[in-house]
Amino acid sequence: MDISLGPLLFHWGKDNFYKFYEEMANTEASVFYLGEVVCSDRKGVELDDIAAVAKMLTGKGKQVYLSTLGLI
């Protein structure tokens, strides 16, 4: 059985975003969904930040999926 972690639904800011995923990378979760799924106007974590976290996670053997808004 795989454990998956959905995208963050709240705006935590860039520093907490990185810290959270660095901690989660060392858990048994094997599938990660990254991206903005709540509000297209939220700023702080950019696509480059998401790409950096995705690279870090895949480097640790995790599966990563990019999540987007349902309606744009």
Note the main attributes of this structure.
72 residues; alpha/beta; 2 helices; 14% strand; globular
How would the global form be characterised? globular
The end-to-end span amounts to: 33 Å
The helix/strand series, from N terminus to C terminus, equals: EHEHE
Beta-strand content: 5-15%
Give the helix tally: 2
Kindly report the average pLDDT value: 92
Structural class: alpha/beta
Gyration radius, in Å = 12 Å
How many runs of DSSP E, i.e. beta strands? 3
Largest sheet properties: 3 strands, parallel
Which strand order do you get reading across the main beta sheet?
A: 1-2-3
Low-confidence stretches: none
Helical amount:
25-40%
How would you briefly describe this protein structure?
This protein is an alpha/beta fold and 72 residues long.
Description:
The protein is 33% helix and 14% strand. Strands 1-2-3 form a three-stranded parallel sheet, with helices on one face. Helix 1 (14-24) packs parallel to helix 2. It has two helices and three strands. By secondary structure, it is of the alpha/beta class.
Blueprint (SSEs and pairs):
Layout (H helix, E strand, L loop, with lengths): L3 E2 L8 H11 L6 E4 L12 H13 L3 E4 L6
Parallel strand pairs: 1-2, 2-3
Helix pairs in contact: 1-2
